Predict the structure.
Amino acid sequence: MKWRLLILFAYFVGLSIALPASTPDAVVLVQQQATQLSIKQLNQLTQSITVKVRSGEVLGSGILIYKQGSIYQVLTNAHVLRSADPPYQIQTPEGRIYPAKRLETINFHGNDLSLLQFTSPDNEYAVAKFGNASPLKVGDEVFAAGFAFPVEDSQLTPSSSILSNQKQERNIISPVAQEDLSSFVFTVGKFSLMLDKALEGGYRIGYTNEVEQGMSGGPLVNRRGELVGINGLHANPLWDAPDLYQDGSMPSSSLQKKIAQLSWAVPIETFIQLAPRPDIPKSVKLN
């Protein structure tokens, strides 16, 4: 009887040795896949953290990035606020409009960034989860959102990335009320280029998503829904194409052509470095 038990024990020991153990890389891959969101989830997420920046009329977009009690902070582009004089307002995702003030305590050193603050004592809003632009690889999907100014139907083509939900599933323009002509737009594209040094305004992330006027200040997120950049420059501008680095030097002519063909965002790491807060992980750095 004992020898039968010994044989059975040896069999199971051998079987456990023969079975391959899960490698750390495989575990990480599974975890990464598990945290990726669907296109529908990403669209809903970006709608929940994207606001309209107003000064009477809509000036552009902004991102809900911080909440403390009933106080919220909104990150946007400085050029959005330069387009009109204060007082400013924030229009939240469900349509409420709050008076907002510009925070002047942070020096963004010429980067195209600005902060607004408003108070909402009765309603709670989602805020963005900060990511990291450094791990992005060429070809990775990225997702841009914001409130685009009106686009004539004649300007929409089957290849346009600003199409109705019925025409194109992966690029969505949401229904809009008659009295408000700016529409929430969510576009899918690919990360294409991280510049070694920033263009004027702090722009370093180049991507293929179409960014329309009005989407400036809106979020650029990765597949996990993490904020990796702030939209600010659209591709193929008719004038004022970005052609200077922050240090005053110029990209090569071949690189300038590529720059003009892409949309551009300021990396979220730039904001984190200039406006550090204890709630932001110290691991978020730009290489």
Residues 2-18 form the longest helix (17 residues). The domain at 44-119 is CATH 2.40.10.10 (Thrombin, subunit H). The first strand starts at residue 50 and ends at 55.
